[in-house]
Write a structure and sequence with these properties.
By secondary structure, the chain is of the alpha/beta class. It contains eleven helices and eleven strands. It has two domains: 191 residues, 2-enoyl-CoA Hydratase, Chain A, domain 1; 58 residues.
Length: 273
């Protein structure tokens, strides 16, 4: 009888070990244009906390951004071992354009009250494209959205209209049309809602993740206006150095400004969603 009891305990331990509860919730905060700097920040942190014992919540407030940067984030989410919840937050925020793809690609998509999602038609900035090229870009983007909708079992028809017709939905409309999984006032409501679907400890540790100083600096100089100001400052600095040789300071400032400007300009969007 004793041996049978011990065997039962061992069997129970083996059975439950495969269903480890989530102990940590990592909240990655992302606000602003989706560019290479933002993509690197999100992707690196998803990979950093990629564990079955973790839950990642990605809060997002964005007007859109680069298609390639968006794809990098989405592919990381789709291939993550960790359950990732997307959250359009805070109230008044939006997941527009590239942001719609990111939120819809998460395992569970939530929106705060007074938020909206959609308007995901790709546009071209800084160059004129012929109709054939435009059609190729749109068709490719639609196909990508269909793949996401199929993978996450979302309303394909509405998701396609976000790309083709640039429709935008409030949180209530998105929930009613089966585009998202829920409306939540705060992070605790998301954790509580998910605890009914996945194994989460009663009081998991919540950790907030934000850009560090270097990431914030690089993200700031990647803004178009800042990049162009640095470019002009760099040009004037170099001209000042040539006109008054020997001072050195204008040349140093100009060189550094140009380097930072070129970095920023290289992250500016060409085709955006």
């Amino acid at each position: 009888m004793k041996n049978l009891f011990i065997a039962a305990l061992i069997f129970l331990n083996i059975l439950t070990s495969g269903f480890a509860k989530i102990r940590n919730v990592y909240v990655i905060h992302a606000k602003g244009i989706i560019n290479p700097v933002m993509a690197s920040y999100i992707v690196e942190n998803i990979k950093k906390y990629d564990s079955k014992e973790n839950l990642i919540i990605l809060t997002l407030d964005t007007p859109g951004g680069l298609l390639e940067s968006m794809r990098e984030i989405v592919l990381t989410i789709l291939n993550s071992k960790t359950i990732i919840a997307g959250y359009v937050y805070p109230p008044g925020a939006r997941a527009a354009s590239a942001g719609a793809f990111i939120i819809l690609s998460t395992h569970y998509a939530f929106m705060a009250p007074s938020t909206h999602i959609g308007a995901a038609h790709p546009v071209s900035l800084g160059q004129k494209l012929d109709e054939t090229t435009k059609e190729k870009i749109v068709n490719d983007t639609v196909a990508f959205m269909i793949n996401i909708a199929e993978r996450r079992k979302r309303n394909q028809k509405v998701c396609i209209q976000m790309v083709k017709k640039s429709i935008s939905l409030s949180e209530r409309e998105a929930l009613k049309k089966d585009v998202i999984d829920g409306v939540a006032n705060n992070l605790n409501e998301i954790v509580y809602s998910l605890s009914k679907k996945i194994a989460i400890e009663k009081s998991p540790s919540i950790h907030h993740v934000k850009m560090n100083f270097i990431e914030r600096f690089l993200y700031t100089i990647s803004h178009p206006q800042i990049a162009y100001i640095l470019l002009i400052l760099g040009i004037y600095g170099i001209l000042a150095e040539f006109s008054t040789p020997g001072i050195g300071f204008p040349g140093v400032v100009g060189s550094i400004s140009l380097i930072l400007a070129f970095f920023g300009l290289n992250t500016l969007p060409v085709n955006t969603a």
